[in-house]
Amino acid sequence: RGGEEMTRPETREDALRIDPDDLDAVPRLEDTGLYDRDVLHTIFLQFPEDDWHQEMVAFHGTDVEVPATLLLDGREVGEVGVSYRGNTSFDMPAKKSFGISIDAYDDDLRIDGHRTLNLLNANGDTSMMREVLFSNIAGEYVPAPKANFVRVVVNGVYVGVYANVEQINKDFTKHHHGTRKGVRWKVPPDFSGGGALAYHGSDRDDYTGRYELKTDSAGPEDWDALIELCRVLRETPDQELEDTLPDHLDVSEVIRFLAVDNALLDSDGYYSRGSDYYVYMDPEGIFHLVHYDNNETFGRSRGGGGRRGPGGGGGPGGGGGPGGGGGPGGPPADSGADGPPPGVDRGGTPRGPGGFDRGGDRDRGAGGGQDARRGERRGRGRGGRGGPGRGGQGGGATQPPLAFADELETRPVIARILAVPAWRAEYLEILREVAEVQLAWKTLGPRIDAYRELIEADVVRDPFLGDRTAFLRSLYGDDQSLKSLAAERRRFLLAHDDLKPAEPTKERE
Q: Which listed residue, of 76, 225, 388, 417, carries a Cα 20 to 30 Å from 54's Cα?
């Protein structure tokens, strides 16, 4: 990592320094929530030693957290524990993600009721927006981690814009389910589909390696309940599913979970991998599925913005997923006829100057996404031809509405939900709504424009990004932009036979 040390922001003469007492540089946002998407909070971390980065690298992957004083928008919060998080998102980019335990040294310390911060580097996402956009949309349909943008300053040096993503912990279940009780599992990357609630028999040992327990108080009976859900999904006859499955699974919520996952193309989710999601069993024994790790949604390109070294900006990275044309629907009021903001041409080019908690909760630094990568990379998924009314797996913008409907072994939740006509109809209705409404540029465009206005200046100043051209192109410009990818996905879904509304039956005269 010697070359990386030479370009660390804190070692550079041109580093941007921000004083927490500078009211012009650091607005006091005292009347806003921690996850308010309309503001850009500034988080200051003040380590007692200058070699904090080397110390954090040395302790990465351990339970050790480095103490620092945290300030939010210039107001001191207190002493917290800080660590670098992630695996691929740690190893590959110079910009590291932070996990922060707010209550590491004071059990009662909170920020807006929260005990944990996950500050994610948006690994590979030049737009910086996928995590926040997905949270914004998914939260309208299912319980989803809240997310917004923050600026991060370490020992007075600006280190960039981050996605601030809510932890899936007891605070999360309290907010969405009214209780801090229950049991949570995280499903780490597993390309085999073995962690997709597939049934592997009754031996607990066949599940403990596939599901990472996040609740210390869980006992053998909780594992048995998880195994029983897997058995019910695998062995219940189709004609009995409608009566049996709701005794184990929140079916209506899971239908919405699947529709959002498919519509927004979560490349690290239940559809694409059968992993990278959370399982929560509430105190009544009903299971829920929760999205997480959403920086690879919207058909994310594999390329990222180049890292800026001393004296200049890095170029844009290479392409990845399917391309597409411009977005349907009317442009937002401030975007002109073609969607990009004033001063940007169609190619996106600017014109002119421009751990463990003390309550038995194993989520310390473990949730919110971009972790557990283990050096693995996702494939695009197998193509295929499905039977009548079902469809093959597909992939990218052309993933069919009924993808994986026949994959009982590797995607049992999809297969069993779609096996019940009423549930399949509900799923298709929600999928159609997400495509028609949420992916329309008249809906998505204003969201992207608002986020761009909020973070653009700070992205340009980000010592690890700093390329305005690549940033704007990733939003509006080329066939890998958010606008183009959303438009292509929307066109494909709304043109698909499975999503076309049934024509009314004509009465005989």
A: 76
